[in-house]
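Contributing new records

If you add data, match the layout below exactly. Sequence lines come first and carry their own label; structure lines follow with theirs. Keep one chain per record. Anything else will be rejected by the validation script.
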Amino acid sequence: MTQKNPSDLVIRHSEFKGQIGVARADITPPAGIYARSWGSALHDAAEGIHRPLVATCLYFRGGDPELELYLLCFDLGWWYDNAHEREIRDRILEKSGVRDDQLVTHMGHTHAGPASNLQNLERQGGHLIPAYRDKIVEGAVAALKGAKANVQPAVATWGQGRCDLARNRDLVLDSETFLCGINPEGPTDDTVLVGRVTDAKGKIIATLVNYACHPVSLGGGNRMISPDYYGAMREVVERDTGGAPCLFLHGASGDMTPLRSYEADTAIADQNGRQLGYAALSALTGMLPPEQELAFDRIEDSGARLGRWSLRPKPASTKLAVMLSDSELAYVDLPTEVELLEALKTCTDRPLKERLERRLMVRRDVGEGKSRKVRMTLWQIGDAFLVGAPAEPYSAFQKEIRARFPGHAVMVLNIVNGNIGYLAPAETYDKPGLYQIKISLFRPGCMEQVIEDTAKSLRELETAHG
């Protein structure tokens, strides 16, 4: 039997101590804006607002040398191409005075949000897009400036819970039938990583909920603008934490979907959100006080010999650091722009036309090259890591990264600073009919390469900054 050293028996959370601020701005679009996310939809324009959309910013300052970092979360779906993301980002940077290397933009990835790309100007509700783009920029700038203005000494603490809302969505019925729907036998990831930010008096001033589940509670039959499930999740968490803003961090969910998906009824989105919200609150409730750890204390004889544990002070880490990790990924064979334009000329099937239009945007975005550099943004926030992917990795990505860094809370975020589509495990390419594989830009092995490159960079970050 292995002998345990009592001094090694310690339970602690990943923590960061520094200057932290939070602010939020409304970015709800007008009802009637073009909001078609589904090929199966029978409408183009939204008919109303289920819940407001917001931009929320968390500002960090600290480390040596002192850094200023901004995590800006949007209740939006995705950027349609690099030029789209870059234009909006450049305007935000210019108006806010924030440097490009200080800013992480992250999409909540609702599929019930408005379109903000200019390709849809001529469609129903498209005339509202230009003014809405201005509102996105104005809201982002207000959140960035507000978060910095609200900065104060604070401690960020991370804990972990569980929620079985997310289910595997790679369903193969037979050799000809590949579906994007619940696969009861497929692997899942039920991890809920929760961050708690407290001020000098221990009051909660912000929370973060990192969970991997595609926000597709609502499908083509829904006609309302909605943040999907994470709107109700935030409501539940904020109600229990005195109104402290809650940031939803959409995890590596390329293969994850809610148990109730693609519904028309917004009540289903709220039900899904409450399930995640209560799971997040459960994790929050079980967390230790800021800057304390639970350590083995003594043996107490009471019939049974009891192992007694006690809280003791544990100063939080003040480290704040940034690193970028690049991977060169080879493209699959893509149809040319001419071929896609020809296919669109004769296409009368709306779902197929939607796929062709998205493929055309991708083709124009990638150009005629054979490969692409994919850049991961890595932050060390005390004992925690933020891993920002400009893509939609499968959940196996975050499970592997977390397994390699067990001493750190690891927040993996999809659609950070752009989006180049899915990163799927190599074995998934054996199922070519899966939606994610049919539209993937990259050859098999892409996700595994990014895992190796990311892990190497995190090791360097960990070593360089202790």
